[in-house]
From TrEMBL:
Residues 9-109 form the KIB1-4 beta-propeller domain. Transmembrane segments: none annotated. This is KIB1-4 beta-propeller domain-containing protein. It holds the Pfam family Beta-prop_KIB1-4. The lineage of its organism: Eukaryota, Viridiplantae, Streptophyta, Embryophyta, Tracheophyta. It comes from Carex littledalei.
Amino acid sequence: MSKMCFGGPYLVESCGEILTVSYNQSYEGTYYQFYIHRLEFGNGKGNPCWVKLSTIGDRMLFFENPLGYGHAFSLSASDFAGLKGNCIYFINMIPTSSLGHTRVINVYDVENGETKFIDTPFNRKNHISISWFMPTLNHI
């Protein structure tokens, strides 16, 4: 197995819950393993604690940068055709040489642990300004 690095944790609100997401990644960006935890307050019966989740259901989590900075948000897949729930969508930097990186968009399936590359025009070498935007369902 190649060298691994740890990323996160991200703090994100999702459906009224507070989640943290962290991950392991191979240096080459070919392998990912995500860890999702939900904050439970204990309903007055003890101290708050983090509970590991094995699914996020219909939710999709979006992360701007896997190094633990940038912004993160959550959406319901049922509100957006063509997107799959129980997935983490993230922008990543893959080293291309000792001097450069390529920024790519990936999707991690929480259920089966697989990561897929999403080919878009936004996957660009040494392009710093890739970012998610937050869609709105409100009409003006």
